[in-house]
Design goal:
Elements: E1 4-8, H1 12-24, E2 28-32, H2 35-45, E3 49-53, H3 61-70, E4 79-83, H4 88-96, E5 101-104, H5 109-138, E6 155-159, H6 163-173, E7 178-182, H7 185-191, E8 198-202, H8 210-219, E9 228-232, H9 237-245, E10 250-253, H10 258-289, H11 300-315, E11 321-328, H12 331-338, H13 340-357, E12 363-368, E13 371-377, H14 381-397, E14 400-402, E15 407-409, E16 413-419, H15 427-443, E17 449-451
Helix pairs in contact: 2-3, 5-10, 12-13, 13-14
C-alpha cells in the first residue's frame, strides 16, 4: 500500500536520506525544512503521514505537532515523531502533543517501514470513516461520530512464556487497559476468539514457537483481524523480518520501554476500533437498505429480490410460492382523526401481529403506507389462505393501543391471496392477482380474505 509522506527536518541530509529510502519503496515524498512550512504543506497537500523531527530551531516538532492536531484540516493525519535514541522525555512530550507514533535515531529501515505501513492502514480506515460521516451529514443522518473512539480501555491478551516480562507488560497497561496473560499458546488461540482488541506476542519465546503462533492466529477466522504487537530482540533480524512477513502489525523491541509499549498499544487499539466501527456502519447501512425503518420488517426492495428468485425456481419445477397482500382498513381515518403519530403506532403494532402469525420461513414486508406483503415459499393457495385468515382474526380480535396506550382503536385488514401457477407466471402477475383480491375484499365490506386463482 503506497502513500504520500511529508518528511520534516531542518537538516537537509536527513531529509534527502529519508526521501531516498521512502521513494525506493514507492512512496510519494513531500518535504519541509521547518515547522511553519510543514503546517502549510500539510494543509495544502493533505499527506497520508507526517514524519516530524523533534529538534528544529524556532517551532520545534512538539509545537508543530500540537498545531497540526489543533487544525480540523490536518488533525486526522497520523504524525510520527523522530526522537533521539535516549529521548524518553521526548516520547512522553510527543504523546502529550498528540503524536500517533515515534521512531528513534538512528532510524532502522525495517522499523521505519513497519511503522509507516501500520499508520497508512489506520489512515485509510479513518479516511473511509470521514467520507461516510460527511455523506451522512449531507443527508442529515446522525453518523454517531467515530471521533469519539479512543485507544484506551482495550482488552489486551499477552502471550508470553516469560512470567517476568509478561508481568511488567500487564502492570504497565493496567492503568489504561484490561490486560490478561496467557503463557500457553493453545489456550491463547482459544482466548483470542473472544472480544480481544490487541495481542502482544513474544515471538522469541523459549517454550513455544512465537512465529508459528502468529501464523495460526492469522489463519483463524476469529483472530485474524486482531492486531498483533510482536515482542522481539531487534538484534534478531531474521525473526524480526519474518514476524513482519507474517503480518504482525508492529514491532515492540526488547527490553520493552513503558512509553513505547503504551504508544504502540494505543495506536493499534484505536485502529482496530476504527475498523470495527466502519464494519458496523457498513452492516447497518446494508440492513437499512432492505429494512423498513418504522416497522422493522423487510422493505419493497428486499421483497422484490426474494420474490423474483422464488418465482424463478417455481417456474423451473420447484416449490410453489404464495403471496399475501394486506391493506389496513380505513387507515386514512386514523391519521386524520388522531394524527400521524397514532398512525405510526398502528403500523408498528400491525407489523408485530403480522410477523407473529406467519410461518418461520415466510417474509413479511411493508410496501409503503398501510400496505403489506407476505411472501410464502412452498405454500399452496389453501395454506396461504389459512395463514391470511389467522392474521385477519388476530388483527381484529384486540384493539390497537395508541397515544402511548391512553386510547385504543379497533383495526381490521383486507387480504388478497394468490399462488404461482407455472413457468409463465411472473412476480408482477402474482402480486396483481393478490392485489385484486384486496379490492374485492374491500368491496365486500372489508375485514375479509379473498383468494384469487389464476
Amino acid at each position: 500500500m503506497t502513500a504520500r509522506i511529508l518528511v520534516v527536518d531542518d537538516v537537509e541530509p536527513n531529509v534527502r536520506l529519508l526521501e531516498a529510502k521512502l521513494t525506493l519503496e514507492y512512496y510519494e515524498v513531500l518535504t519541509a525544512m521547518d515547522g511553519q512550512t510543514a503546517l502549510d504543506v500539510a494543509a495544502a497537500e493533505r499527506p497520508d503521514i507526517i514524519l516530524l523531527d523533534v529538534m528544529m530551531p524556532g517551532m520545534d516538532g512538539f509545537e508543530t505537532c500540537r498545531r497540526l492536531k489543533a487544525d480540523p484540516v490536518t488533525r486526522h493525519i497520523p504524525v510520527i515523531l523522530v526522537t533521539a535514541l535516549d529521548g524518553r522525555e521526548d516520547k512522553i512530550r510527543g504523546l502529550e502533543a498528540g503524536a500517533d507514533d515515534f521512531i528513534t535515531k538512528p532510524i532502522d529501515d525495517v522499523i521505519l517501514f513497519a511503522r509507516v505501513k501500520s499508520l497508512v492502514r489506520l489512515k485509510a480506515v479513518m479516511d473511509e470513516l470521514r467520507e461516510r460521516e460527511e455523506s451522512g451529514r449531507r443527508f442529515g443522518v446522525d453518523t454517531d461520530g467515530a471521533g469519539r473512539l479512543r485507544g484506551s480501555g482495550g482488552r489486551v491478551l499477552v502471550v508470553d512464556d516469560s512470567a517476568l516480562q509478561a508481568g511488567k507488560i500487564v502492570d504497565q497497561l493496567s492503568d489504561d487497559h484490561r490486560p490478561t496473560h496467557e503463557p500457553d499458546p493453545a489456550a491463547a488461540l482459544i482466548a483470542a476468539r473472544g472480544p480481544v482488541d490487541l495481542m502482544i506476542v513474544n515471538v522469541s519465546a523459549s517454550a513455544f514457537d512465537g512465529l508459528r503462533f502468529v501464523a495460526q492466529a492469522r489463519s483463524t477466522e476469529a483472530s485474524r483481524r486482531v492486531p498483533i504487537l510482536a515482542v522481539v530482540d531487534p538484534a534478531d533480524r531474521p525473526r524480526l523480518i519474518k514476524a513482519l512477513e507474517l503480518s504482525v502489525n508492529d514491532i515492540l523491541p526488547r527490553p520493552v520501554d513503558p512509553e513505547e509499549l503504551n504508544a504502540r498499544a494505543r495506536s493499534q487499539i484505536k485502529r482496530k476500533r476504527y475498523a470495527d466501527f466502519l464494519k458496523q456502519k457498513l452492516d447497518y447501512s446494508l440492513e437499512m437498505a432492505v429494512t423498513d425503518a418504522l416497522t422493522g420488517l423487510h422493505n419493497r426492495r428486499y421483497m422484490a429480490g426474494q420474490l423474483q428468485a422464488l418465482m424463478g425456481r417455481a417456474g423451473q419445477g420447484g416449490d410453489p410460492v404464495a403471496a399475501l397482500v394486506l391493506d389496513i382498513d380505513h387507515f386514512k381515518a386514523v391519521n386524520d382523526g388522531f394524527g400521524h403519530d397514532a398512525g405510526d403506532e398502528v403500523l408498528r403494532e400491525f407489523a408485530v401481529r403480522l410477523a407473529t402469525n406467519v410461518r418461520a420461513i415466510d417474509l413479511p414486508c411493508r410496501l409503503g403506507g398501510e400496505e403489506f406483503v407476505v411472501v410464502m415459499p412452498g405454500a399452496s393457495l389453501e395454506d396461504a389462505t389459512r395463514v391470511a385468515d389467522r392474521i385477519r382474526r388476530d388483527v381484529a380480535s384486540l384493539p390497537f393501543p395508541i397515544m402511548g396506550g391512553t386510547e385504543s382503536l379497533t383495526i381490521t385488514v383486507s387480504v388478497g391471496v394468490a399462488c404461482s401457477t407455472g413457468p409463465d407466471d411472473t412476480p408482477d402477475a402474482l402480486l396483481k392477482r393478490a392485489d385484486e383480491g384486496v379490492y374485492e375484499a374491500k368491496s365486500r365490506g372489508r375485514n375479509q380474505v379473498i383468494a384469487r386463482a389464476a
